[in-house]
Amino acid sequence: MLTLPVLDERPIDPPPPGANSESTSGVAVKPRRLPEWLKRPIPSGGGTYFTKNLIGELGLETICESGKCPNRSECWTRRTATFMILGETCTRPCGFCAVKRGRPEPIAADEPDRVAEASARLGLRHVVITSVTRDDLPDGGADHFRRCVLAVRERTGATIEVLTPDFDGRPELIATVLEARPEVFNHNLETVARLQQHVRRKSQYAVSLAVLEQVKRLSPETRTKSGLMLGLGETTDEVLETLADLRSIDCDFLTLGQYLQPSPRHLAPVRYLPPEEFDELGRLARLMGFHEVASGPFVRSSYHADEMARK
Ligand code: SF4
């Protein structure tokens, strides 16, 4: 039995029976020590300086920083970032996520303008906007999403991708975001059905699927996108079942990446998938009909999102 660390003093359930800690080749991968393919050289130079300063100057949040993303140095050097709106405090206690949780801040009315300003000064042609989950707000922050998308489009003409919370699956809130006509609507399943309660308590697999289904129903021209973190104890069959569920609702884009533990207080990874296994899953996903797939240890929802959206 794996012993998992405690998050915010609330016990986290151990992985359910059947958690898969072996690679498809049958070779066990020790989860505690980072394998070679997950080690990256420490970046030299000040490539991130411009992006970091701009984010600070405009008082914006990014999931790059709040989520302790391993790609931050690369992305910020490329002058790209994923804006996190609606504050820096989340109302849901997901065991994988590094974002602060607790009582959120009031909405900043000028945030859409600041996101638009940052997008313009970074020269972004594709802007990704995500948020914390705001279960405390009557509309879950949907109208603020809408305002941010409109502000960025008006200022930059960029294509826009939203990476939203589930809005409890409420169609009227999804419709509010869609009023701004984002080109890509991303909502992550994060993990397979069996591990949902373990990985993202208070969220439900069926509700997340319904979000993506509603987007296609309300706005068939909008590209839908979803992603999974792997290495949390899922089996390959479960991953393929999840991908089939996504294809059954016509999900267009897929990201598959390795779950990395942001701190010892978060869920421990069960295993590290080798790059070849990501390649194979990516190949299978394409065969299943996804238009675009990014699959690799360092892939995140917004990693090279501009390239995926262009295709
Ligand atoms: S992958 Fe996404 S979240 Fe990570 S640094 Fe790049 S833009 Fe930010």
How would you characterize the overall build of this protein?
With 311 residues, the chain is of the alpha/beta class. α4 (111-122) packs parallel to α5 (142-156) and α9 runs parallel beside α10 (275-288). It has helices at residues 49-57, 63-66, 72-77, 111-122, 142-156, 171-178, 196-199, 205-218, 236-248, 275-288, 305-310, and strands at residues 61-62, 82-85, 89-90, 100-101, 126-131, 159-163, 184-186, 223-230, 253-258, 292-295. The chain has an 8-stranded mixed beta sheet. Strands 3-4 form a two-stranded parallel sheet. Iron/sulfur cluster binds next to α2 and α3.
Helix and strand arrangement:
Blueprint: H1 49-57, E1 61-62, H2 63-66, H3 72-77, E2 82-85, E3 89-90, E4 100-101, H4 111-122, E5 126-131, H5 142-156, E6 159-163, H6 171-178, E7 184-186, H7 196-199, H8 205-218, E8 223-230, H9 236-248, E9 253-258, H10 275-288, E10 292-295, H11 305-310
Parallel strand pairs: 2-5, 3-4, 5-6, 6-7, 7-8, 8-9, 9-10
Antiparallel strand pairs: 1-2
Helix pairs in contact: 4-5, 5-6, 6-8, 9-10
Bound molecules: iron/sulfur cluster.
Could you spell the SSE succession in H and E letters?
HEHHEEEHEHEHEHHEHEHEH
The radius of gyration is 18 Å
Overall pLDDT level = 90
Strand order of the largest sheet: 1-2-5-6-7-8-9-10
Class by SSE composition: alpha/beta
Principal-axes geometry comes out as globular
Unreliable segments of 5+ consecutive residues: 1-18, 22-30
Number of helices: 11
Bound molecules: iron/sulfur cluster
Counted beta strands = 10
